[in-house]
Amino acid sequence: MAVSKVKIASIIGVTDKLDDVIRLCGQTQYFHPDDALSFYSDTRKFTTFTDANPYSDILQELKSLLIRIGKDLDVVDTRRLDLPHYELKNYVERFSGRMDELLNQKEALEELQESYVKQTVEIGHFVGLNLDLKKLAECKYIKFRFGRIPKECYEKLSKYEDNPYVLFFQCTSDATHYWGVYIAPVEYIQQVDTIFSGLYFERLRVKALESTPEKMLQELQEKISELKAQIAGLQKQIDDNWNQEAEKCQQVFSKLEELDTYFNIRKYVAKHDNSFILTGWIPEEDEENFRERLSKIDGIDYAVEDASEAVRHTPPTRLVNKKLFKPFEFFVDMFGLPNYHEIDPTPFVAITYVLIFGAMFGDFGHGVVLSIVGFLMWRLKKMSIGRILIPCGISSALFGILFGDCFGFENTFNPLYQAMGFAEKPIHVMEPATTNYIIYTSVGVGCVMVVIAMALNIISGLKQKKYAKAIFGPNGVAGLVFYGSLLVGLVLQMFAGIPVMNAAYIICLIILPLLCIWFNEVLGKLVARDPDWKPEKWGDYIIQGFFETFETILSYATNTMSFLRVGAYVLVHAGMMLVVFTLAEMSSGIGYVLVLIVGNAFVMGLEALLVAIQVLRLEYYEMFSRFYDGDGIPFHPVTVEKH
Asked: In b/e form, how buried is each residue of 294-303, taking b as 16+ CB within 10 angstroms?
């Protein structure tokens, strides 16, 4: 549906022209390089380029510097900047050298400042001791230990009240610990240390013991102020240097990104003597422009062929969808891109996902809020899922009008229905008759979805020339006839009273398609005129085919019944909002309003998440499994961008 057609472009020329060709391919931004050697059967005379990339180290050095100074550069146009490799290297080395010197000085001062700040925190716990710590440290016969002890362990100190040296002098405390000091004679300090260690005492080694804690704290704060001034001065020098070099640096950065990207294309190139071969894929609509640009380079020859000529290659997949469907490429890409010959399921996913989501989450108010949230997610955070939530919210709002539901208020749209000639809203979700109708409708939706998936599989099989898959497979014509005939026969026989399930109907439209599914491998080989169509052992083949066919029949039933969750979530939504209003009515005044707000927010968040997951499950397991492989190779043209 929306897989863009691509062509193979093969370029041959002298090696001196390789850089010009690569530059042109990169500037087009639609050339997808491929391994040139893989396109030829005899490659004995060819080799590949193994030169080390001369730009990667320089680029990495500049990127590391930009990270250190907190700058994030974008890639800009560099066509006016024509500097050889050595000048680019010299510029980066000079610029990095100057900035590194300033940054190293700044980082050293910041590290010192951090250590001083840590010391202020440490010493701050002991303000109020009114002791000269320097004199205390000079004591010969006693030792002291500053630190903290968990509050629950502090209570256990009472067990050691008989030991006069197990005393903890508390200074300050926080939520979990007491901070303080214990003191013991030199000959008992090891014993006391052991006791406190068992109580999870964490010793704090105060680095500066010059005076009282109050004076030390003041001195440290003065040093921190001095360091802040020095750091600010260095930062100003860094900023000044950056402002002088910002424009040139961005140009050099962009040029290095460009040269690095282009040089990496060489790994796809094959060479022989003084010639090269570069092969890749281009969109069909850009062929004329590509030819025109290549023709301006002397010393090369080129050929552009249809993708069908690449018998041993799978062309890359490039999705091109309408703006309305494009957000849903996110789901397709998450499962796996279609291969070049497959159907792109994006439009199918977009339509079915939005409709099923809206039915399962039918509430006008919730839908409007969901659309607003999706819009903000996309505009502010550029989240892909945000663009998907916008149409899903609109669908929920429309189904909410159909169900007459707005933030759980079920009579909101009665005036609208009365204006349309109804006495009240036509669908009452919680009424028994309506509940049965919702369940039957869910099963009907499942039948329609399974039939559509089979039809898409038939189209995809014919497109890929897999006729056995399209005609005799469980999801081919045989499967469609069997499933459709069984459904139509049961509905007409059981609900309309029309006796269509006669012998001819059963044999021709049920049994015969089932036998085709059973023997689909043999029939496919016969259609393809494969001389080796017979299985090695008929008995084993028949038994294996029986179990596979039985599993297929079960899959028809389970896939269809899985859509019961659509109706179930319609009922779940109504039930959850009934609980919210019941809880609200148990309150009064502002409590009633708060319960409604909180309840709606809870239901909206929980149900939106669950519905999004369940609908995606229906897409992947009940529908994709019938017609879609998703083993495509993404189309990645050469583009110069920040890595």
From this structure: beeeeebebe
Say how many CA atoms lie within 13 Å of 484 toward its Cβ. 17
Let me know the angle formed at the C-alpha of 458 by 350 and 518, rounded to the nearest 5 degrees.
125
Domains annotated on the chain, with CATH:
6-65+258-309 (3.30.70), 131-211 (3.30.70.100), 330-627 (no CATH)
User: What is the chain's alpha carbon radius of gyration, rounded to the nearest angstrom?
Assistant: 38
Please give the pLDDT value at position 520: 81
3-state secondary structure of 73: coil
Taking the C-alpha atoms of residue 467 and residue 534, their distance in angstroms, rounded to an integer, is 18
Q: Supply the DSSP symbol for 622.
A: I
1 closest CA partner among 478, 476, 376, 345: 345
Pairing state of beta strands 202-203 and 275-283?
Answer: unpaired
Q: Give the span between the Cα atoms of 34 and 15, in whole angstroms.
A: 18
Q: Which residues contact 142 (CB under 8 A, 6 or more apart)?
A: 183, 184, 185, 186
Instruction: Please state the rounded mean pLDDT for residues 411-418.
Output: 80
Neighbours of 17 (CB within 10 A): 16
Size of the chain, expressed as the number of residues it contains: 643
| Residue pLDDT, tens place only, 313-368 | 889 999 989 999 999 999 999 999 998 888 999 999 999 999 999 999 989 999 99
Pairing state between β 270-272 and 177-185:
unpaired
The encoded tokens of residue 196 equal 């406190």
- 562 to each of 434, 446, 619, how far by Cα in Å? 20, 7, 11
> Which amino acid makes up residue 638?
V
If one counts every other C-beta atom within 10 angstroms of the C-beta of residue 293, the result is 14
The pLDDT value recorded for residue 128 is 65
Q: Give the contacts of 546 (CB within 8 A, at least 6 positions apart).
A: 518
For the chain, the maximum distance between any two Cα atoms, rounded to a whole number of angstroms, is 113
Crossing angle, helix 85-124 and helix 213-264, to 10 degrees? 160
Taking each helix axis from N to C terminus, what angle separates 564-585 and 346-360, rounded to the nearest 10 degrees? 40
Q: Which residue has the tokens 């659309």?
A: 371
Would you tell me how many other CB atoms lie within 10 Å of the CB of residue 117? 14
The answer to whether residues 25 and 286 touch, using CB atoms and an 8 Å cutoff, is no
DSSP 8-state code for residue 620:
I
Output DSSP code: residue 124: H
Q: Look at the block and give the residue holding tokens 């039985």.
A: 550
Q: Do 607 and 573 contact (CB within 8 A), yes or no?
A: yes
Q: What is the pTM of this model?
A: 0.78
Q: How far apart are CA 347 and CA 37, in angstroms?
A: 37
Q: CA dist 408 to 10, 413, 429, 578, 601, Å?
A: 63, 12, 12, 8, 11
If we measure between CA atoms, which residue out of 158, 201, 205 comes closest to residue 177? 201
- Residue 614's identity, in one-letter code, is Q
Pairing of strands 169-173, 47-48: unpaired
494: helix, strand or coil: helix
Give buried/exposed letters for 442-456 (b at 16+ CB in 10 A, else e): bbebbbebbeebbeb
Q: What are phi and psi of 174, to 5 degrees?
A: -130, -160
Helix (H) or strand (E) holding 236: helix 213-264
Is residue 311 predicted with pLDDT exceeding 70?
no
Residue from 158, 161, 180 nearest 169 by CA:
180
What are the phi and psi torsion angles at 185 (to 5°)?
Answer: -60, 155
Residue among 419, 438, 420 nearest 428 (CA) = 438
Distance (Å, whole) CA 270 – CA 36: 6
* Mode of pairing for the β-strands spanning 275-283 and 32-34: antiparallel
